[in-house]
Amino acid sequence: MALQLWETLKEAIQAYTGLSPSTFFTLLALGLAVYYVVSGLFGSSDDHRVRAREFPQEKVDPLPPPVQLGEVTEEELSQYDGKDPEKPVLMAIKGQIYDVSQSRMFYGPGGPYALFAGKDASRALAKMSFEEKDLTGDISGLGPFELDALQDWEYKFMSKYVKVGTIKKLIPVTESSSSSSEVVETTERDVQVPAENGPTSEIPDLKTEETPSATKSEE
After folding, report:
1. What number of other Cβ atoms are within 10 A of residue 43's Cβ?
2. pLDDT digits (tens, 9 = 90+) for 25-72
3. Contact 91, 107 (CB under 8 A)
4. Could you say which DSSP state residue 194 is in?
């Protein structure tokens, strides 16, 4: 009985597929193997729900809205380098301060650009330098290509991050300015201007030369 069924099955396979029984079953086995591999990689929606319940995703607190600082010094800006988790991560380009907290993985501690946080890194960005001497806002002496690179960085920050303040520029008092003020004060103190209605004895006599016309009239 079983032999008759097998013979009937072989005839049906050859009639409907045109393949030999061995080829047909080989292809069928390969198809089943591929199906199980693909289903194992992607899984069903039910499997995803079960895995989501088993491994709940960690909740990430939303970032607080950027706080406008106004005008601050470079020393005050250095306090926002990301080391304090309670403070935002700030960075400046060309004196303009931006809140880069949403990219803390890049600018925060351990990030590839962490040394730029809390500083005006204009020169370093223009030169693509990670040296300590270039972590400054001084862009004097840069070439045209470096200035173009810095401009691209500025456009990127303007489009992606919120500007929260500017760096206060401190103007140092030079010795020349102080000496000139001393000279002005000394000059104003030493010069004595006679009073309008003061005694005439303190006003020196002004001698005028006699003109030839005045001499002839006296003769």
Report:
1. 12
2. 776 777 777 677 666 666 555 555 545 455 455 555 677 787 888 999
3. yes
4. P
Please enumerate in sequence order all residues whose Cβ is within 8 A of that of 95, keeping only pairs 6 or more positions apart, or say none: 120, 137, 166, 167, 169
Strand partners, 70: 165
What is the four-CA torsion angle of 149, 152, 153, 157, rounded to 10 degrees? 170
Which of the 8 DSSP states describes residue 137?
S
- E strand or H helix that includes residue 185: helix 175-190
pTM above 0.70, yes or no: no
pLDDT top residue among 61 and 210 = 61
The secondary structure of 46-91, three-state, reads HHHHHHHHHCCCCCCCCCCCCCCCEEECHHHHHHHCCCCCCCCCEE
List, in sequence order, every residue forming a beta bridge with 93; answer none if it has no partner.
Answer: 96
17-21, 48-52, 206-210: the lowest-pLDDT one: 206-210
More confident residue, 213 or 121: 121
Spatial contact of 92 and 77, defined as CB atoms under 8 Å apart: yes
Q: Please name the residues in contact with 43: beta carbons below 8 A apart, sequence gap of 6 or more.
A: none
Q: Is 81 exposed, middle or buried (0-12, 13-18, 19+ CB in 10 A)?
A: buried
CB-CB contact of 98 with 107 (8 Å): no
Q: Which helix (H) or strand (E) holds 104?
A: helix 104-107
Q: For the chain, how far is it from start to end, CA to CA, in angstroms?
A: 174
**Higher model confidence: residue 125 or residue 15?**
125
